[in-house]
Amino acid sequence: MASGSASGPLLKPKNPIFTKKHPSFARLCRGPAREGTTMPGRPDGAGTAHGRAYERIRNAIFTGRLRPGQQLTEEYLAGQFSVSRTPVRQALRLLADQGLIEIRANRRSYVADVNEAQFEEIFDLLSFLEPYSAGLAAGRMGDEAIARLKELNAAMARTRAPADNRTFLELNAEFHDLIHAHSASEKVRELLMRVIRFPHNLYLKFGQIPDAHNPSSVVEHGQIIAALESGDRAFTEVQMKAHVESVRLAFRRLWDENGNEDGRVPGDADRPD
What we know:
Elements: H1 23-29, H2 49-62, E1 71-72, H3 74-81, H4 85-97, E2 101-103, E3 109-111, H5 116-137, H6 143-158, H7 165-180, H8 186-193, H9 198-206, H10 214-230, H11 233-258
Antiparallel strand pairs: 1-3, 2-3
Helix pairs in contact: 2-4, 3-4, 5-8, 5-11, 6-7, 6-10, 10-11
């Protein structure tokens, strides 16, 4: 972890996933983020064709109408949602930025799916990037931003599982987005954009989240807020890393409860390269 000073260096990770030759690192860094985008979010102008296409495709993914691993074509989506191909193409790019759509080298688009190896790889990335980014944000978040974090966490505490699980996910994403938006590092934010909503992918895969862990997440968020308020970079990194690993363990248990002996989850799609 980093030293206690605000400018202290962070030790380089030994995990091979952070080498440029590792396929997960290559996927993470492939291509620039959309111009002008800092963190993933809904498009400007929800009433535009672009915004309508985004909301309809996203809703179809979360309601299971479009399943993990399913191939998507612009023609099919345009016909299904009564929009032209151009806004569909724009919506797919934004959904890809959010990790909900995978656009492969052959330019074919699929609803994002995840296998067991990718599960561990992406949590390795989150376990490194989120603490580092949160540490950068320590001391940079003003009273208004801290107050908003507390509001979001209080709203999460008021949710009721399982009915409000999707709401919990959305509030959680906004909580983490707000922290990383204050890191003052465009490169770190660009990298995080591609993995920060990974719990959404797991929700799509399982149709649930480990909601028994929700109260623990709220407590851990409170500890992160306190660390951010203190302005202590190292303390903030420790709190965020503990939270990411706690979430990893909760989803790991969910995976083990729902997976087969080979680690596959019933209903997994066979995804061609």
